[in-house]
Each structure stands twice: as structure tokens, then as C-alpha cells.
Amino acid sequence: MLENDAIRILDRLECLRLLAEVPLGRVVYTRQALPAVLPVNFTLDEDDSVVLYTSAVSDLVHAVDGAVVAFEADEFSAATRSGWSVVVTGRAGVVDEPAEHERLSQSGPRSWMPVRDGVFLRIESELVTGREIMSTRTTG
Amino acid sequence: MLENDAIRILDRLECLRLLAEVPLGRVVYTRQALPAVLPVNFTLDEDDSVVLYTSAVSDLVHAVDGAVVAFEADEFSAATRSGWSVVVTGRAGVVDEPAEHERLSQSGPRSWMPVRDGVFLRIESELVTGREIMSTRTTG
Q: By its UniProt entry, which InterPro entries does this protein fall under (chains A, B) (predicted)?
């Protein structure tokens, strides 16, 4: 894949606007020295960080708390072969301040799955990259 | 997230059947010691490996040739909060046998983007895991 007319690099504001439009993304991390990925629903917080809600005892929390992870969301149309993808890269951490937890309990994401001992996991948006793929049929 | 009634673990055959239904997935790998992810279109080959078509000089090929990567595909409905995700984990490698390259040129994937010096990249389906998330509204 080449950087050319078919690809437009998105700036940070465009990326964040697109992220705010979709409910689901994927946490990309390392688990037992292997690449791992888990789809999760999320919200963007006021500081543009990505916030998830999951179980305190989940494998995800165990693997990513304190680590740098990537978080990806995208929307593509197979019909037009076009779409966009955005990747946030930054440190992940459990929200442990009670006031923050309380605030997110009101405004933050609710997991699509039942959660026991729920915690909010925040991914700082230290690096935000994205690209839009425009329709091209030149390669078949 | 918990393993419970809302989640059904998919067996390998179910996973491969679902993978065959979607055109797009995401390669999950490590780039410069950081987690990285790239959406790509793909096909499943006869041996159930995942095959992509990309540029020989792409960052992706440079980063993953010979490495163990994950490949994820999913389909979710925000309306019903249900869907599935499948992850293939295995070694990635450029297809360098001329006969295999020729065969894939006929039957393999075509990139949604223009590709220069195209190569096929194969991800062995050494580990195939998946889960289906059934609709649940119990947590709001």
C-alpha cells in the first residue's frame, strides 16, 4: 500500500471527530509476548482519551494496566472500497481516583457485556493517527 | 468482561466460516517496539491461512515478515449490541515461491489500494479463536 491519491492522512482533530462517531474499537496490546486484540465499546473523554469499562479481574486489565497500547477504530464500505481508520497510541491505566470513577459512572461507557467489579480503563491519546481511503478501482 | 451467557466461544470451523464472510480485517503487530494495527482486505487460502496483498516495500512487510502476528475480523451491531470477533494468531511471511505467487495472482486478494511491487503476505492460522456476543441489556 502506498501513500498516494487513494489515501488521505487525517489530522488529529479529524481523527477524534471520527472516533466520536463510532461505538466500538479494538484494543491492541501484548499478551504473553504475543500480539493480541480485543474489540470493545468505548467513549472519548473530555481530554480525548479513550475510556472503556471492563472487569477489574479481566485478562485485558491484567495485560494492559500501565502499558502502552494501541486502540483502533474504522469504518469501511466493501461496496465502494473506501473508508477510514484511526489509531490512538498511548499508555493505558485503570482509573483509580474515586471522583473520576464516579464521574465516568455517569457519563462514561457502559460495557456491552455484563461486568463484575467494573473498572474504567483509560488510554491516553498521546499519538493519534488516521487515514481515509478513497475509492479506487484501478487495481481491480 | 466475563465469560458467561452473553458470550459464546466459537470453535475453529465457526471462526473460519465467519472470516470467509468478511472482506476486511486488521493485522496486529509490533512496530518499533510499540503495538500497531492496520486494516487490510484479505482472503482465506485453501490451507485456512490469511492472505493479504501489499507492497513489497511497505512498512507492514518490513515489520511482520517472519514475525508472529494477530489478525482480527469482527462484525458488531450497535443496535443490538451483539456480534462476533475472530482472531488468527500465527507467523507471517511473504509468499516467495513463484508458483504460489502466480496462483494467488489468480485467486488471491486484490488490494483496495494501488500497490507497487506487490507481494502476497501469508499469516498462518496456527491459533484461531473467536467469540460471539449475544445481546444483553442487563447492564444498561
A: Pyridox_Oxase-rel, Split_barrel_FMN-bd
